[in-house]
Amino acid sequence: GHFVAFHHVGKIYSTGTTALADVHFGIGEGDFVSFLGPSGCGKSTALRMVAGLEEASSGSVLVGGKEPKRVIRESNDIAFVFQEANLLPWRTVLDNVILPLELRGGSMKEHRTEAKRVLEMVGLKDYMKAYPRQLSGGMKMRVSIARALAAKPKLLLMDEPFAALDEITRQTLQMELLDIWRREKMTVLFVTHNVFEAVLLSSRIAVMSARPGRLSTMIDVELPYPRT
Ligand code: ADP
Ligand code: ADP
Fold first, then answer.
1. Which residues does the UniProt record annotate as the domain ABC transporter (predicted)?
2. Which bound ligand lies closest to the C-alpha atom of 26?
3. What is the ipTM, given to two decimal places?
4. Which residues line ligand 2 (CB under 6 A)?
């Protein structure tokens, strides 16, 4: 089976809103897949299901053949980056990145080494001791990405991570993310309503339409560079 599989997924919220109807597709390991579509077409709902934050009303979502909730309980294989960086203001950059590792126990020394590695990867090595309020929006997002990467997830979920950033910062972070994806061999699921962003980043684009929440088509993007 596919690494991430949507099996005829439907989602009706308790309010009566149908967010998704019969969404059926599979994603291979190592793909960078964007959910692209207008506001309200169910992109976030689909992503939150893969994160185990939302249950399907019909059908099922599986990651590596298992329920997402179980994968999250049993491993560090799934990480989530939201539009807001959601950093703890009373913790330094380093301690924000370490937090999820800390919660899972193990050696603090190893956690610190790993946190430093990912902070270096996102260009924040010199800001480890800073506090979130001292950082720009782009830097906060970098910390958020580093925190997600620290657990070495097999699957990185991102919900409009760059939407709140200015154009220049967004372009910089897009390039950095591409670089990280190529090096780390992760599978990425990325939500955006920005066509340019989807084309720039993805190896596959899941185009969604709001009639409501259907998968219109899956586009394979030929990458302009080799995967390393
Ligand atoms: P199954 O377990 O049903 O054989 P998978 O778990 O591998 O299928 O994937 C879920 C569904 O995705 C499949 O039932 C299939 O219809 C669909 N699918 C198969 N190949 C592709 C593909 N290349 N791209 C998108 N969807 C696919
Ligand atoms: P998108 O991410 O494409 O903007 P969403 O998944 O956020 O779409 O929303 C899909 C539909 O479901 C919308 O009509 C939205 O109003 C509705 N919706 C989203 N979350 C909830 C919720 N928690 N309760 C009720 N309705 C919701």
1. 4-228
2. 1
3. 0.76
4. 13, 15, 17, 19, 37, 39-45
